[in-house]
Specification:
This protein is α+β, with helices and mostly antiparallel strands. It has 2 domains: 15-183, Regulatory protein AraC (Jelly Rolls), CATH 2.60.120; 190-292, Arc Repressor Mutant, subunit A (Orthogonal Bundle). The protein is built from 12 helices and 9 strands. It has helices spanning 95-101, 115-118, 133-141, 146-160, 165-179, 190-204, 211-218, 222-232, 237-255, 260-266, 272-283, 287-292, and strands spanning 15-23, 29-33, 38-45, 47-52, 55-60, 64-67, 73-77, 84-91, 110-111. The strands form 2 sheets. The chain has a 5-stranded antiparallel β-sheet with strand order 1-8-3-6-9, with helices on one face. Strand 4 (47-52) and strand 5 (55-60) form a beta hairpin. Helix 6 (190-204) packs across helix 8 (222-232). The longest helix is centred in the last third of the chain and has 19 residues, at 237-255. Residues 1-7 and 114-136 have low confidence and may be disordered.
Length: 300
Amino acid sequence: MTNLPGLPAAEPPVRLYFSGYEQTAPSHTCGPGIWPHYLLHYVLSGSGTFTSEKHSWQLTAGDAFLIIPGVVSAYAADSHDPWEYCWIGFDGRDAADILAACGLTASAPVFHSAPARFALVPCVPVPSVPFSSASLERADSFSRDPAGQCLLSINETLYSQPGNTYLHLSLLYRFFSILCPDLGNAEKNSSTYLQQALDYLQHNYAYDIKIQDVARYVGIDRTYLYKLFNRELGISPQQYLIKLRLSMAKRLLSSTDLRITEISNSCGFADSASFCHHFQARFSITPTQFRKEPGREPVP
């Protein structure tokens, strides 16, 4: 995508900078200091201490700690059982929201895992990536830890396939999905269901969709969806869909020279006759008459 002159490039949802792996020496320390991006460490074995904003946490295998950009942080390996960890450096406009969904925030920058939880969501290594023998041995030793596997895979692919950005990001998102596997099953309230339904209609009104499709997407019964729309908006889902399509049609009539048939097709109507029928029923004027109205202002 080309940016307009003088405008900064749009920030991506997530941007992965680097990753790494280390078996630290006893009492190995890093910091205190600040970092310009998020830095997440995932402990594979051993133990150590993480300090952020004068609060400290003792961490062991399966735990993670997050360094927040600009926040003074430090971490140190245990003197008897030094930790082994993977890390990733990243940022992006959605990074904070993703981390918050995983329970990682400035006030709670550590994650404590449960091995049984991870066992339900394996992360399959990428078969086309030429893993080194050393990393394969490490990956095998953590076969019951898919989160660690994902980070090891990220570390391998960043260096073996440096230009494959989509592969790197897919593994990163997979790692986050392992940290918060119950996110998709979180309890939802009626406003969440309604917003999901409205978003679906907004992005799919141009297609031949049925209200059952909306209910299936949101994950609720069609009858409940109907009651929800009537309670919150005062109209049925079908009425809302027709209203949305007609609103979009008015915009096209006002701002383009598209033919009536083209507008009908672009707004999800079965045919131009159906479009004209609904348009006249709602606005008491035909689409052609609306377009010819003198001094007509574009629909805001």
